[in-house]
Amino acid sequence: MSPIVEMRELRKSFGAVDVLKGVTFDVERGQVAAIIGQSGSGKSTALRCIDHLEKINGGELTVCGHALHTDKPDLAALRKDVGIVFQGYNLFPHLTVGQNITMAPKLVHRRSRKEADEIGREMIAKVGLADRWDYYPEQLSGGQQQRVAIARSLAMQPKLMLFDEVTSALDPKLTGEVLRVMEKLASEGMTMILVTHEMQFARNVADKVIYMRDGRVHEMGGPEILSQPSTPELADFVNEEF
Length: 242
Ligand SMILES: Nc1ncnc2c1ncn2[C@@H]1O[C@H](COP(=O)(O)OP(=O)(O)O)[C@@H](O)[C@H]1O
Ligand SMILES: [Mg+2]
Known about the structure:
36% of the residues lie in helices and 25% in strands. By secondary structure, the protein is α/β, with parallel strands linked by helices. The mean pLDDT is 96.
């Protein structure tokens, strides 16, 4: 079976600035890949290319069978297959938790209200917030809002979930509750790519660790590379982060 993500020599520039300078990696079905690296190394850009939030300038990228290096990639199909969660939760403040979660399934998947409610309630239970269905975002903690954002993404039943530093704005206690939700998803077999500074989490949960440096993959391997890096640059990075 072909990988969920196949990235080959991917290039992306903003104006004259080359941000991704030939990035190659695969993510297989059911794998958890953690992208780590210094700020500005191109982690978010690589993730955003996978969801075609950034248009690629060169190389090849196939995501859930959709080739994004072609003239007219099927973006509607891509967006149904890929969920993305960012550092900011981006919940609609004037909608309840339940309304936030069921909106896209109703609009995009054309689900009936009953169907959307069913799957929404299943997902809110999965993130441990079943009793918050009728709350508004401002009545929730940051960690709870982030878990609602994850549930909202899951309600679209994606094949691949992307997480970009989803715990960076949270204090340690709230970080832990969000990481536990992600760990559970991983154990249920969800294919996930996460940009993270949580080295402990990467070591425990990731099948593949991708260390980016200056727009390239500098070192890649199993989670053991965090304990036994091959390059001095990853060794330094790991020392700073742990
Ligand atoms: N929309 C953009 N326009 C111009 N430059 C950008 C844009 N997005 C990112 N960059 C630049 O690309 C580089 C990599 O950014 P990013 O992928 O966000 O890195 P990371 O997530 O590893 O911190 C940075 O130098 C950043 O300033
Ligand atoms: Mg980033």
